Amino acid sequence: MQRLFAPPVNRAMQTLDRSFFRRTIPLTAARIFNPKDISQIRRDCAQDLLRVRRIELMPYDPEDPKRKLLLLRPDIDAADPTTASEKTQSLIKNKALELVPYTLEMRYEHWNYDEIVGAVLPEGLDDVPGSFAQAGHLAHLNLRSQYLPYKHLLAQVILDKNPQIRTVVNKLEDVGTHSVFRTFPMEILAGPEDTTVEVKESACNFVFDFAKVYWNTRLSHEHERVVAKFQPGEAVCDVMAGVGPFAIPAGKKGVFVYANDLNPESYKAMLDNVSRNKVGAYVIPHNTDGRAFIRSSIEDLWKRHKDPAMNPAMVPGPPVKYSRSKAAEGIPQPRSEPKKVAVPRTFKHFVMNLPASAVEFLDAYRGCYKGLEEIFEDGTEMPLIHVHTFHRETQERGEEFAEEDILAEIKKYLGTEVPKGEVDVHNVRRVAPNKQMYCASFRLPKKAAFA
CA of 234: how far to CAs of 39, 255, 256, 301, 339, in Å? Predict the structure, then answer.
């Protein structure tokens, strides 16, 4: 039955022609004499009703626009009531309804993206490219070469079938190939050339130019997973912070964050997002080299901790309920009073979300606390490092070797071995058929920190 309602096929189409997608289907409908009986008859005749997505089950009667019909399965013949169920036949005999011919006119709007695209792509291209990442109003495609002749058609159908999408882009090169800032060249396939987007994630609002910064919507769960490890009053050093997907939700939790990104555009967006989300008392954006940032941030936080003028820090108090009507009556309203929060001695966590090369920055931790041993004299724990990295699988070194290979990379750059049982290697997501993203979390060894 589904084939009867499928769109017409045109394998030669490369420019979208919406008018081509039309189909006329003869059906049978039930005309119900008493509109008050419709609900009951729908239940009684349930097995005879037409069940096709996006086709209205109860269209208006062409002969009486005030009345509605019930569309029936295509194997039911209006001229032969015996093709319907016994219950429907009984309702016909009792004059509750009658069967009438009905012509269903299907148009482009009746079919979804997969159905339209499946009707135009060559038969050899069975895997319809339906997956896209979304950032605000922008859809981001990563089309393989065989789909490029159809890229504008695909993009236009995406626009038509996703009202929240206004612009569709296609990635031209892999992330980082074009720029050390993790950006990539892209082309606009459909819609206005507007790449400034607004994204809501973790109860925060982020605004940025998608063409100039790095953002991956598919990492939202990873952002939340890592931020869940942070506790209010702790300090976090976000070494490759981007526009703030770790830093800003952490600031909302009352976590002190030193957040850095080398990309000036990311830094600019982060400044705006800090202000937009009102976390300026907790999040301090930076725009510098990651290695230098690790060391300078450790020293700066220790100085803040020891400075009575800066510790404790004054931060906004919790919001209070304000009544405009009571205020208008002259009734005093409570105000949110600033509160004092102790500045930690050092960072509880370091976050390094630059999977293509973050592990190479582990050499910055060699001796990063040398001369600062007093920080830990009160029993303060060594900080946790969360470093994101890729594992490329080969025929000889498959997925089962991921943890072993990642531990070897950590030892290579940190200069100190971290025992297997002291590293949590979390599988974040598969980014390519032979490539997975992981997050390795471990406590900074004293041997490396004081080297």
Answer: 60, 5, 6, 12, 16
